[in-house]
TrEMBL record:
It comes from the Eukaryota. It comes from Castanea mollissima (Chinese chestnut). InterPro entries: Glutamic_endopeptidase, Neprosin, Neprosin_propep. PROSITE patterns: NEPROSIN_PEP_CD (PS52045). The lineage of its organism: Eukaryota, Viridiplantae, Streptophyta, Embryophyta, Tracheophyta. This is Neprosin PEP catalytic domain-containing protein.
Amino acid sequence: MLSDRFVDGRSIGTTKLVKHKGTIKTIETEDGDIIDCVDFYQQPAFDHPLLKNHTIQMKPSSIPSDLKANSSEPDQLFQNWHQSGQCPEATIPIRRTQGNQHPRDLYHFKQRRARLNHSLDGASDGDVLSSHEYATAYLGGNFHGAHATINVWQPTVSNDGEMSIGQIWVVAGPDDKVNTMEAGWRVDYDQKSKLFVYWTSDGYQNTGCHNLECPGFVQTNKKVALGSPIGDISSYNSKQTNIGITIYKNEGNWWLKVNDQPVGYWPSSLFTYLANSATELTWGGEIYNSKIGGVHTKTQMGSGHFPSEGYGKASYFRNIQYVDTNGIFKDVEAGQLTPDATKPSCYNINLQSDTSGGSGTNFYFGGPGYSDKCPK
């Protein structure tokens, strides 16, 4: 049984929120988030045994050439917690985790990969049973990074323990030892679209976590709080909000860049198969279907609307790129991508052949979940 959460003696929920080690300042936001400003050198990453003698890289030495970003990705404070305060210099913001917000994540990429392999071999959907469902585009090869402009929405998550995600996966290694770095936006049962990162180095078994919930990811930016809500989101047939997500290798480390902000990095020493390069890149959406009562969840993916509805109504990925082993961003041709939808009647993906208008290689994805055409 979970105990009440307390901050400075106040009960605010169902699990005890603990102040992070090295906290210099604490910020409470209007929407109930608690942000600890933690001394840079006391952040969780440096408790990892592989990082005891780690040489810290405070900023990337360069950004690969030919990165495509657009005017809707300015260098700005895109999270609302800044309205309640700022973290001092030489600190980083860490959001206090509110309970078990990520209960359904283990083994999800292995399930997606198994489904993709089966579909490429001509097997039916029934051959791979999974509660995780996807609408993604995949690229195989040898890579030093990936980028996309991701349309940000706040899809409805119907049941506690479910989630809806729009993200990039950077991957290497066999299923049982798969290494991944993941980043994008995520909505849980709290119905808030949040920036997140994730990593594992052993197939989601014992290593890795979301955000800064375990030692690993080294954060260098004092303006971005991983796991905290994104301020602006898209509206149906109205204003569209995008976020630029870039993962790329620099001086041996894998850097995360959000819009124009270098956020931090995954040290290569965390990984085995990703120590050198990635062999798979995936862009797209994921949901968890808890199948309550034996019926399909109403949890939405993307905007909650099918790709066929197009701009302003369906969620999209634009300017899809990879970083080659020479450190240069290159456009992914639409014909190079392998689309995969676990259940197209529930959630689908539609690759676009028109790359004009500044969108680069792009696709629409998502869907409403449960309907007459998606009963289970």
